[in-house]
Amino acid sequence: MIKNLRAILLNGGMLCILLAVLAMGAFGQAIKKAFVTGEMLMSVSATTGAADVTAIAKSTDATVVKSFPSLDIQHSRMTYYLRMNAQPTDQATLDAVAKLKLDARVLYAGPNKVYYPLDAVPNDPRYPQQWHLPLINMPQCWSIEKGEPNVVIAIIDTGFDVTHPDLKDRLLPGLNTGGVGTTSDLTDNAPHGTHVAGIAAASTDNGEGVAGVAWQNVKILPIKAVDTTGLFPQTALLAALAFVDTKSPQIVNLSLGSAAPADQPDVTDPFNAAIIALANKGIIFSISAGNDGPASPPINPANLASLGNPNIYCVGACGPQKE
Q1: For 185, how many CA atoms within 13 A lie in the half-sphere containing its CB?
Q2: N or C: which end of the chain has fewer CB within 10 A?
Q3: pLDDT band at residue 5 using 50, 70 and 90 as cut-offs
């Protein structure tokens, strides 16, 4: 058992701070796509019958592709992944969402939003260039704690290099929820996820590669959740969180996000609701808040931290001089 779950934030969970320190402004790039055209998510009460669900979907000329039970203890609602049958436009997708919202049986309706990686990948993997480690006093931390082998960090990202010498002994069997390749294919074409996993748990003091925050003991539960465009659709993220629910890691890292309309998150959004449900079960979430400082728009799911849940953390970024 973990001696003190909050102590993980000084070690395995320091990933949250470390990712922020390493972040180099990727979110500052123009975001061109907000959702997958012709795809929607709809939540209804778990007691809603299959015939009603089919009828609601048909009212927007859509077909039910997949269902996601809510992750709260009560399993109070079901979320359905709908795909429109015609060749829809973005506006037609939004019009269909608006129509779904008029149905009293629908608790939530929205397009299948996409999320973007929020941290850039540096080119130099050598420890002398890892200025962030002394900046957050990791050498002093390592003199106190070098991680525990029963601590697991689930990383939901673009994929992972499972043969990397610094990672191969850290990775547990994972899952690909993005629909590209087999469910066991964790290939990282970014390679964003490989970098994130290395920050967290690259084998340290082994004479090669980089130093991971968690030294040599913490394990990574790798989950690939990108589609063919390299983005994270909500459907893949919901499947990823459902997998997390079956494995019960202590920490989940999400170095991804999308511009949100407000600082206050929509708690009826199924992705947000799934994070809240898992946080309520005791899982710590480390979520990137973007790297543009005061100029950054509200970012989801990082804005969930505004709810005051003690297990949801979000962070920004700083440079070598703490700028």
Answers
A1: 9
A2: N
A3: very low
DSSP for 281-303 reads: TT-EEEEE--SSGGGPPPEETGG
pTM of the model: 0.84
Are 117 and 255 a contacting pair, CB within 8 Å? Answer: yes
Specify whether the CB–CB gap between 301 and 287 falls below 8 A.
Answer: yes
The pLDDT of residue 140: 80
- The whole-angstrom separation of Cα 302 and Cα 112 is 18
Angle between helices 15-22 and 192-201 (to 10 degrees): 130
Q: Report the alpha-carbon distance of residue 149 to residue 152 in Å, rounded.
A: 8
Buried b (16+ CB within 10 A) or exposed e, 165-179: ebbeebbeebbbbbe
Q: Is 163 helix (H, G, I), strand (E, B) or coil?
A: coil
Contact of 85 with 54, CB cutoff 8 Å: no
Cα end-to-end span (Å), the chain: 38
Which tokens hold the place of 181?
Answer: 């390749």
Taking only the tens place, the pLDDT of each residue in 191-232 is 899 888 888 877 766 666 776 777 678 899 999 999 999 999
How far is residue 18's CA from residue 255's CA, in Å, rounded to a whole number?
Answer: 11
Beta-sheet pairing, 219-224 with 152-157: parallel
Pure H helices in the chain: 15-22, 50-58, 90-101, 132-135, 138-142, 192-201, 234-247, 270-280
**Higher pLDDT pick, 9 / 146:** 146
